[in-house]
Amino acid sequence: MLKTLLLFVITALAEIVGCYLPYLWLRKGGSAWLLLPAALSLTAFAWLLTLHPTASGRVYAAYGGVYITVAIFWLWWVDSIRPSRWDLLGAALCLAGMAVIMFSPRAG
Description:
77% helix, single chain, mainly alpha, flat
């Protein structure tokens, strides 16, 4: 279970970094060279999603809950905006949904 969650967190960070770097280039006047690590990060994101041993649709659905949670913490750590209790409650609900999807018993 911990391995799955850690893999999801690393995957979410790869996706967020892959999207944040072009944002820095387009909106904050950063160098176009930021697009190279952004592309590498998004490539890593796609590859990381393939490492789960369950059906892809289930992985994508469950990953969304972790992505939301990591994005809320990104808001705090990178954007320096403290999440509200509602942000944190929403993230907790998303993690609960991820746990139900990924870790519930399955037949056969």
